[in-house]
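User: quick one
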Amino acid sequence: MVTTVFGFVLLTLLVVTAVAIVVTPNLFVAVMLISIFSLLMAATFFLLDAADVALTEAAIGAGMSTILFLGALALIGEHEARRRRKPWLPLAVIGLTAFTLIYATFEKPRLGDPSAPVHQHVAPWYLEQTPELMGMSNVVTAVLAGFRAYDTLGEVLVILTAGLGVLLLFAQRPARQAGRVPAFIGLRHHLIPRVVGQLLIPFIVLFGLYLQFHGEYSPGGGFQAGAIIAVGIVLHALLEGEPAGRAILPTRVLVGLMAGGALLFCGVGIAGMLLGGSFLDYAPLAADPVGAQQLGIHLVEVGVGITVTGTLVAAFHAFADRERLR
Amino acid sequence: MTFAEQLPALAVAVPLGAAPVAALLGRGSLPWALAAVASVASFAVALLLAVAAAGVDAISYDVGGWAAPYGIELRITSFSALLLLIITGASSAVLLGTKASLDAEVARGRRPYFYAAWLLAVGGLSGIVASGDAFNIFVFMEVSSLATYILIAGGSDSRALPAVFKYLVMGTIGATFYLIGVGLIYMMTGTLNLADMEARIGGVADLKPILAAVGFVTLGLALKAGVFPLHVWLPNAYAWSPHAVTAFIAACSTKVSLYVLLRFDFMVFQGSLAEHGVHFSGFLLPLAVLAVLVASATAMSEGHLKRLLAWSSIAQVGYIVLGASLLTEAGLTAGIVHMFNHALAKGALFLAVACLATRFASLALADLAGAARRMPWTMAAFAVGALSLIGIPGTAGFVSKWYLVLAALKTGAAGAALVAVIVISSLMAVWYVWRVVETAWFRVPAAGAGRDEAPLPMLAMLWLAALANVWFGLQPGLPLALSESAATALMRYVQ
Amino acid sequence: MRVFGLYNYWVFAVLLMIGLYAIIARGNLVKKLLGLSIFQSAVFLLYISMAKVEGGTAPILRYAGEPELSSNPLPHVLILTAIVVGISTIALGLAIVVRIREEFGTIEEDEIQSKVRDQ
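Assistant: Done. Structure below.
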């Protein structure tokens, strides 16, 4: 009952925050609010038993997404111009969609009803078969990197595509050269945050590695690990300044990481084909069936982690390194 | 497993596996070469699949060795084989033919990313077409969409940026609507596999969440396919992207969304929802007629060549939807074969545009005066593509229009009105094509009327595409056979 | 309990509409992306809500002792994918916005349109 009430409050806060994001005329405020929105969302997911998703939402939604928004705002300014626009068309579209959605709720199964059709057909099979076929306890990891690994390959390619897109767009230097702002030098002159921050970085990276390699038994996996390691590297760049951050991981290395992770994933898939199985079939990788599955899952999760780290850091540098125009 | 059994996975794995490699190949011509080789290899795989799929109901492939509905299934039908041919064929032709145009438009520093994105677009579109799983279609839809945004923004025209932003926002809304629809169906059936959905949806078909899901899936995919009036992203996205990219995406990207719309609707909804056929036709038929008429009318007064052709594409999407919304085997055959024939015609036309752009700085009609004196071969091929677009006998465009008219006539009294629409819109097409022809042949060029043709490889590929329009106008056997068997398979789901 | 049982789905609908409103009605491109972000998050809530089982726990199995009731793992997997897709779209969108600002000097939709027309 306490959980229910807590969930109720969180959901209401989500709506309040979302309204505030739309209403505020200052984009910096809106970005801070969307970070809070993501944290509230992560807490809601946690209450709904989705530990892996909550971790991802907190790392990616509240962490990296906010950093990217702030990086963009630094280049474009934070003020939103307000104009009178005719709101009738949007309101009509929205009214119609809202009506459809509310209408659709009334024959949905209640929240948490164990006899709902969604809990009957495929899901129980995963819960029953995972220990036997995969020998691991986190069913989410087993489905993500095992049974539905093909989806996850697509997802790695989506994030690779986005990273390549950011690099492609920023490969062109801005035309007007007026008003350059010197590169960000970080917090070098602020001793306390710098020392405390530097102390945190090893622990952040260590936690990322733990998530990477313990994902079969507890919440975690390549995505969360990649995002958290990326946050550690980004923190270093924030403390030491952009040139120092770039020096340890130049763009060429980052592109290598992005492509390398995706290639590792594809390679495991193709290895399955060459060894006589189907695409992304892990069974031919080793003699012991459970061991083969675990090996395959480990390898593709490492691929995921590498690509996610590479892409997020590359995207951060792309924004942070950009010259600002007046 | 034998090589032949691996074909469905290879259709996706070849372009997607090559994409990360292309990103690592540096700023020279290597990324282009890899993209071209992978594209041609995928085309070969698509040809083999088309042969294999012709005789059977569907080729099923369990990715990872996990059987559906627990794993993800690839499912190749003759419909998907036809689409694979269009995607890989367009990609190969454009890459091999327009290197000069791409070199001029894509800056050196962008090339590795650009060609990686090209391969991701090809692989993403192939992944959508090959997949038999509703959520997997969403994932590959995002791969192909993000890659397409990059391709559009990859050139040097800054007007592409606002256009691609609009496309990104509308495309994401479309994909998210689709995701909501899939979620609602999953909620009521407990499965994500399309074939399994069809089997399980019967018991819950008339519940409100399913009805809402029908709306969300249809709307989301119609948005991505540029179905009128959800086409607003399309004209500028086509107009300001690099010319080679326009030729590629105009040939295949909206068609893939239409493919998903038809396949999802017929496979999952038509058989199990009461009255669904009536709603389907009642919703899409008027939109198709409006698309054909309004978009053609807009093209008649458009002053920029690429935007004119983009508006014509919206009208052509209308024809495809028109054929499908008749809900007869003849209508579906006409719609599906038009996907192929329109890809041929528009592919040839946009290749001609790419050739023109190598010599003309602006593609506004006013600036193209006398283009045929300067580039006679290019404009002659443009004329062949234009004849196919109008639907003159002896070209590929005629075949699909002829089948469309026959299908419309079979529907009785309303059919006559539809035939009238088709005839009127064809006359409108004559009008807007004539404006180009008139400018190019009969206007006096501003300066320098000397011969100055496009580079030979581009011209050769353009003529290959133009002649393909004639070839498939006289020998429509292969696309027609695939379309007919696709239509038969889809109609089997209708009650 | 009837109210609580559907409250998640109502919040999903409301968030979706707030996001859609920001996308359609706001002219500022960053605001549109923020709206897109809310819009996508709403769908995450739909999926995660349907996965919940009353009295269940996270789908991480215990080897010893009584098997526990678990929530449905499949929507969790799907939403992990969707979150990554979401940030990819946002990152690309932001890069485009920065380029628009550099080329046109503004990120307000109507001002950009008038500048495109002038070109």
